[in-house]
Each structure stands twice: as structure tokens, then as C-alpha cells.
Amino acid sequence: MNNSRLLLLVSIFFVTFSKGFAKEKIFFQGNSNIKKIALTFDDGPNKTSLPKILDLLKSENIKASFFLIGKNIADKKLQVERIHNEGHLVLNHSYTHSNFDKASKKLMISEIEKTNNVINDILGVTPRLYRPPYGIITKDIKLAVKNLEMNIVLWNVDGEDWNSERSLDYVVNTQKKETKNGSIILMHTQPNKEMSYEALKILIPHYRTQGYEFVKLDELLGIEAYQQKDATR
Ligand SMILES: [Zn+2]
What we know:
- By secondary structure, this protein is of the alpha/beta class.
- The protein has a single domain (24-232), classed as Glycoside hydrolase/deacetylase (TIM Barrel).
- The chain is built from eight helices and nine strands.
- Strands 2, 3, 4, 7, 8 and 9 form a six-stranded parallel beta sheet that branches. Strands 1-6-5 form a three-stranded parallel beta sheet, covered by helices on one side.
- It is globular, with a radius of gyration of 18 Å.
- Mean pLDDT is 91; it is low at 6-23.
- The site of zinc ion (ZN) has 5 residues, from strand 2.
């Protein structure tokens, strides 16, 4: 290996390293030079649409990232275990999924910590990636996340599977159009709603035809999904 090549590798490593450990970074997408994308599913767990989506991901051998609502977890521990055991990431989407645009830093810390704690009680890992409900980010939300040494992850593809006024065609075509290298794709597991599942059945083969590889957020972004202290327990 010649010197300039070594220098290049060292700089790539440094950029990746410093990016990955930046404390206040808000992520919208991964590396746009690599043909990898991350499927992310918000608002679980539930016993209706979530198992169907997990079945589909399993049969397609795809790993994804799930942002869970803490208060929904109590009677759905088996679903949370299943997400984790099948190799997906279990991440934090607040405890009550309220509109936090006027919430204090203290309330936000409690919202995020409560969900981290219920997840840790079941799985023994503590998420360090937080997705704010409705994508709302305020100064207090940023301070709370920083205080907990976590990162905020948003998205750059939203087919609006959450919007009941949208047709399946709209959801599928919007996702197809918006997806590019490094995309973080926003989808949902909502009770009594099959839209995401139906869209996924069409989109998985489409993305594969386009040459995309499906990865979890930690790989896409080059960051840790769980807090390090878990590893030494
Ligand atoms: Zn949500």
C-alpha cells in the first residue's frame, strides 16, 4: 500500500469516527456514496400489523430498526423480544408519543428514560438512538437527548403510510421516488392498519432490483445503537 492510499484510508477512518461519536448530531441519512438503505418502523409494539411485518422481513432475510413507544410495551413484551431475537434494533420513540413542542428538558428526559428502562428490563440493552414523535425537535428535546448521551435519528424518505388519506399507490410511488443511496425510510407498524405491510410487499423487490442493500441504522450511520455499558454487564 503506498503512502497516499494509506493517508486516504486514515482520513476516511477519521471522518467516520468523528461523525459516529458526534454527540449532538441529528441524522437524516447515511453515506450517499454507498448503495445501502435502512427500513425504520415507528409506533410499535402491537399484536396486529407488527407480527405480519416481522414475518415478511424474516422471509426476506432483512434486518430493520424499530422505534417503540414505551407505554405500549407493558402487555407486549413478547413482541419486543421477538423484534430483538430476530436481529432487528429496538429503539426509543418516547413513552407517551405526545406532542412535545412545549415540553421541558426534565419531562423529555423522563419520557426517554422511562422507555429506555422498560426496554432494558426486557432485553438487557439500552437504546441510544431516539426518534422524536412527529419529528418535532426543540432546544429542550436536543438538551435532553444530549444529557442522556443519545442521538436523534429522523428520516429522508416518508411515503406517508401513516396518513389514512393516502392510497397504496401514493405511498409506494413516493417511497420509490424519494429513496436514494443512504436513505433512512420512515414506515410504521400501526394497529388495524395494513398499509405499511402492503407497501413493503411491493417495495422490497423494487429496492432489490435497484441494487440496494438493507441494513440497520447502526451500520448505515456508523454509530452504536445501544449504550456501551450494556456490553460489560
Ligand atoms: Zn410516531
